[in-house]
Amino acid sequence: MLSVFNIQSDPRGLQFTLEVPNLPVTALGVLSFKLTEKYSELYCLELMLTSQDSAIDFKAVVDNKVIFKIWQNGELLRQVSGMVVSFEQGDRGSSQTYYGMEVYPDLWRTTLRRNSRIFQQQDIKSILSTLLSEHGIVDYAFALRHEHSIREFCVQYQESDFAFIQRLTSEEGIFYYFEQGEGQHTVVFSDSAETLSEKIALPYNMSRNAQLQEKVVSCFRKSEQVRASSVELKDYTFKNPSWNAQFSELATDIENQRQSYDYPGRFKDEVQGKAFTQYRLESLRHDAHLGHGESNGAELQVGSLLLLNNHPVEETNTSWQLIHIIHEGKQPQSGEEESGEKGTYYINRFEVVPRHQTWRPLQPLWLRGTYPHS
């Protein structure tokens, strides 16, 4: 349910716009939107649109880049670019036609190709660079603090390029997020929370009479969940059959113990074994300590830090790492039937983890066969 202060008539001058290069600037008006972004997932922008053109050419829209923007009093607050994966023509009113659109990052293209092959004597950066370049993706960056070993051989077996990327990054303890720039977006691969620096400060104010001109966090709560507190991985290598390829890692911030065991651990030496075990534990505990909140600050984005202040619990007034955000907004004046509704509003709901915790993705389920694998 939307906060009360967000659904009143909004005097802040909010405006949502959509730029489609192959269409006139005013061809599509934004009626509502929902943007979902999360670490190590493809963001998804869902748009409800209106137009006086009842026959927009699908070829001018589908598989093309668009730019969605959030404005306040003529100032750009946030923009999101991506490729149109789905475009739908809906009902027609007396003078307007409704359309629906789904927008994803360019990385979505990697979901379309399924492959089987071997990479030899390459590290994770080299493998990812190859996969991305094959799909024409040039806007990517690495923000890695840890050493990632060269793999003697690494097998992609009957899985999409995207599934392969998800599997490799999770094994190597790497998460990714997207940075939005002027008309383009960059996928950033990181293995440490210390690489994050962009900070957005917002005060806590749960008052229903809060001034809409002020950007605030209107709700914030913390939770803890029972998760695995120790991990043990075991593997075997024919090159050294007597090697005790077994490693364990224990969390230090809990009382009770819940062990996770896996074989094979998919490592071939001691350095890799220790690292993979640590990454596995941190991935299983990535949501052990969570914060949940609600805000009207459109600048919040995954991969940045929220500096919360003015909260009555002093220890909560600190920096938090944004890991999951759902943004929603509505601009009723863009539609005929909705024009009598209250003014434009925006809200987001977010999840955070402590500032210095490195969030790591869970390993996806993967069918292990009898073929050789890395």
How would you characterize the overall build of this protein?
The protein has four helices and 20 strands. Residues 1-10, 260-265 and 369-373 have low confidence and may be disordered. The chain is mainly beta. The protein has three domains: 4-105 and 327-346, Pnp Oxidase, Chain A, CATH 2.30.110.50; 109-195, Phage tail protein beta-alpha-beta fold, CATH 3.55.50.10; 230-284. It has helices spanning 4-7, 124-134, 161-171, 270-284; strands spanning 14-19, 29-38, 44-51, 65-72, 75-92, 97-104, 114-122, 140-143, 151-160, 175-180, 185-190, 199-203, 217-224, 230-234, 246-250, 259-262, 289-295, 305-309, 319-330, 345-354. The longest helix has 15 residues, at 270-284. Strands 1, 2, 3, 4, 5, 6, 12, 13, 17, 18, 19 and 20 form a twelve-stranded mixed sheet that branches. Helix content is 11%, strand content 41%. A hairpin with a 4-residue loop joins strand 5 and strand 6. The protein starts with a helix and ends in a 20-residue tail after the last strand. It comes from Pasteurella bettyae CCUG 2042. This is Rhs element Vgr protein.
Short description:
The protein is mainly beta and 374 residues long. It is built from four helices and 20 strands.
List the helices and strands and how they pair.
Blueprint: H1 4-7, E1 14-19, E2 29-38, E3 44-51, E4 65-72, E5 75-92, E6 97-104, E7 114-122, H2 124-134, E8 140-143, E9 151-160, H3 161-171, E10 175-180, E11 185-190, E12 199-203, E13 217-224, E14 230-234, E15 246-250, E16 259-262, H4 270-284, E17 289-295, E18 305-309, E19 319-330, E20 345-354
Parallel strand pairs: 8-11, 12-18, 14-16
Antiparallel strand pairs: 1-4, 2-3, 2-19, 3-6, 4-5, 5-6, 7-9, 10-11, 13-17, 14-15, 17-20, 18-19, 19-20
